[in-house]
Design goal:
TIM Barrel, 12 strands, binds NADP nicotinamide-adenine-dinucleotide phosphate, NAD(P)_OxRdtase_dom_sf, NADP-dependent oxidoreductase domain-containing protein
């Protein structure tokens, strides 16, 4: 494939009526430096990625914004509307009066006038003055979901984001949100991969018209929050071998066949390309029998808290 050949990625239509490309390009990394993120995002646009996942806490918004500006300048895209950009509200801004300024700051970082999707990153709030990735127990404060969601709706009504949604929400928290939301969440972005398949949550979201976006779709090997369970699975190695595909491609294909969208992170050109090449094979019943045997274990146990918070965060859900 020449560097200018793009792969077409299918879209899904969200309940907000906007289209979202099934494959998103993740930008969370513990070693995010601006030049690397910018170069990777430009390469991603060349390869055909149109959906980009960032967050105020990733430190990637500015570099992604520079990549978008460069892609426009180079003519890789003719307009910003050809991209689907997601960002997220961090814990320290998870307060009703801080939502709008936080979104405005993200837009400023990205150099954009609107987002396609703005997500409440976690159903947790931290003291506004404490901005960091992992929080201690005494830095967290009660989360006002109703007030925060009203502010998210205001952001949508102001035209600053086309869709609004949540991330890391259990069915219990979604049920609570749906009981008062004027605008229902278009998306719930959660950990979802072959070793954390989240069947109940997926079925609940489908019934409510909420699109699931899988994060850590390969299990996030090599990060402090992930594991090698997926990428080192012997069962998946066998399936991949039969199809002449990689474990990553089998994992992403499985997500696609479940009708969900996903954000996958690679800053390596070959792996970025590989992660798009999932539309020319299908998993068989035999593959599904093996997939059903994979041991299930959540990797992101305590979210951005350095203490045992699992019950509070996930409501005992599996
Ligand atoms: P991931 O995409 O499952 O895994 C990323 C890791 O897999 C990286 O180490 C990457 O290394 C490697 N990789 C990627 N493609 C590969 C391939 N084809 N073969 C072998 N290795 C491959 O994990 P993630 O970064 O946690 O999740 C993806 C995105 O979801 C994030 O970047 C972020 O945008 C989002 N996310 C959201 C939340 C949330 O709370 N909402 C939490 C976590 C992540 P190389 O870069 O070296 O290829």
């Amino acid at each position: 494939m020449s560097s200018t050949t793009k792969l077409a990625v299918p879209n899904v239509v969200l309940q907000s009526s906007f289209s979202m490309p099934v494959i998103g390009f993740g930008t969370a990394s513990e070693t995010n430096d601006g030049d690397t993120v910018k170069a990777a995002a430009i390469e991603a646009i060349k390869l055909g990625y149109r959906h980009f996942d960032t967050a105020s806490c990733y430190g990637s918004e500015q570099a992604l914004g520079e990549a978008i500006a460069e892609a426009l300048k180079l003519g890789l895209i003719s307009s910003r509307d050809q991209l689907f950009i997601t960002s997220k509200l961090w814990l320290s801004d998870n307060h009703p009066h801080l939502v709008l300024p936080a979104l405005q700051k993200s837009l400023q970082n990205l150099g954009l006038e609107y987002l396609d999707l703005y997500l409440v990153h976690f159903p947790m709030s931290a003291k506004p003055e404490v901005r960091k990735f992992y929080h201690k127990e005494d830095e967290l404060v009660p989360f006002d979901l109703k007030g925060v969601w009203a502010s998210m709706e205001q952001c949508h009504n102001l035209g600053l984001t086309k869709s609004i949604g949540v991330s890391n929400f259990s069915t219990k928290k979604l049920e609570d949100l749906l009981s008062f939301a004027t605008i229902p969440p278009a998306v719930n972005q959660v950990e979802l991969n072959l070793s954390w398949q989240q069947k109940n949550l997926r079925e609940y979201c489908k019934a409510k018209g909420i699109m699931v976006t899988a994060y850590s779709p390969l299990g996030a090997g090599g990060t402090s929050w992930g594991s090698n369970d997926v990428m080192e699975s012997e069962l998946l190695k066998d399936i991949a071998h039969v199809h002449g595909k990689s474990i990553a491609q089998v994992s992403l294909r499985w997500l696609y066949e479940q009708g969900v969208t996903f954000a996958v992170k690679s800053y390596n050109k070959e792996r970025m390309k590989q992660n798009l090449e999932i539309f020319n094979f299908s998993l068989t019943n035999n593959d599904y029998q093996k997939i059903n045997q994979i041991k299930q274990e959540r990797k992101v146990k305590n979210g951005p808290a350095g203490f045992d918070l699992a019950d509070l965060l996930w409501d005992g859900e599996n």
